[in-house]
């Protein structure tokens, strides 16, 4: 049961990072209008990608925790939550990249 709790903590932290990626991607778009140049824009982009990488590290940490041998509802829930967190972080990376490319092309 201890390993399942550790996995759940890592997965929840990954979800927080995934939410942070989406929040920061909206924030750095408005940061483009701060100051004279794009310095704050790129600082926001870097912070967004760092948050996503930290979320990815939490996912990888959850994979390193020993999983129980028996499959019960909690184990299936953890696997489903991990897959959902990977999807959310992946979509966050794609969305941030799209916003950067669109912003640099003048859309």
Main attributes?
mainly alpha
Explain this structure:
This protein has 107 residues and is mainly alpha-helical. The protein has one domain. 83% of the residues lie in helices and 0% in strands. It is built from three helices and no strands. It has helices spanning 2-31, 39-64, 73-105. The model has no long low-confidence stretch (mean pLDDT 83).
Summarize the structure in short.
This protein is an all-alpha fold. Helix content is 83%, strand content 0%.
Outline the secondary-structure elements.
Blueprint: H1 2-31, H2 39-64, H3 73-105
Helix pairs in contact: 1-2, 1-3, 2-3
Strand count: 0
Task: Bin the strand percentage.
Answer: under 5%
Note the overall shape.
elongated
H/E series: HHH
State the secondary-structure class: mainly alpha
Write down the overall mean pLDDT.
83
Estimated radius of gyration: 17 Å
Q: Percent helix among the residues?
A: over 70%
- How far is the N terminus from the C terminus? 51 Å
> Major sheet, described briefly?
none
Query: What number of domains?
Result: 1
**Poorly predicted tracts of residues:** none
How many DSSP helices? Answer: 3
């Amino acid at each position: 049961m201890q390993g399942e709790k550790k996995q759940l903590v890592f997965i929840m932290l990954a979800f927080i990072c995934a939410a942070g990626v989406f929040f920061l991607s909206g924030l750095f778009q408005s940061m483009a209008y701060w100051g004279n140049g794009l310095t704050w824009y790129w600082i926001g982009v870097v912070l967004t990608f760092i948050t996503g990488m930290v979320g990815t590290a939490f996912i990888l940490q959850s994979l390193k925790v020993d999983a129980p041998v028996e499959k019960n509802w909690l184990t299936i829930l953890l696997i489903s939550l991990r897959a959902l967190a990977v999807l959310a972080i992946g979509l966050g990376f794609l969305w941030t990249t799209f916003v950067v490319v669109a912003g640099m092309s003048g859309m």
